[in-house]
Amino acid sequence: MLLRTAQLHCRIAHQNFSRSRVPIPSPLRPGAHRYGGLPYCEFSTRGRLSKDQYGPSRTVGQPIAGTTSSPDKVGSAVAKDVVSASKSGSKKPSTLLSETTVTLKEQRKVDWAIMKEMAKYLWPKQDDWNTKLRVGIALSLLVGGKILNVQVPFYFKSIVDSMNVDFAAIGGTAWTVGGAMIIAYGATRIGATLFQELRNAVFASVAQKAIRKVARNVFDHLLKLDLNFHLSRQTGGLTRAIDRGTKGISFLLTSMVFHVLPTALEISMVCGILTYQYGPKFAAITAATMLAYTAFTITTTAWRTKFRKQANAADNQGATIAVDSLINYETVKYFNNEQFEVSRYDQALRKYEAASIKVTTSLAFLNSGQNMIFSSALAAMMYLASDGVATGQLTVGDLVMVNQLVFQLSMPLNFLGSVYRELRQSLMDMETLFNLQKFNINVKEAPDAKPLQLRQGGEIRFENVTFGYLPERPILKNVSFTIPAGKKIAIVGPSGCGKSTILRLLFRFYDVHEGRILIDGQDIRGLTVASLRKAIGVVPQDTPLFNNTIEHNIRYGKIDATTEEVKMAAQRAHIHELIERLPAGYDTPVGERGMMISGGEKQRLAVSRLILKDPPLLFFDEATSALDTYTEQALLQNINSILKDKARTSVFVAHRLRTIYDSDQIIVLKDGHVVESGSHIELLELGGVYAELWNTQEMDIASS
Question: Which helix or strand (DSSP H or E) is residue 648 part of?
Answer without folding.
Answer: none
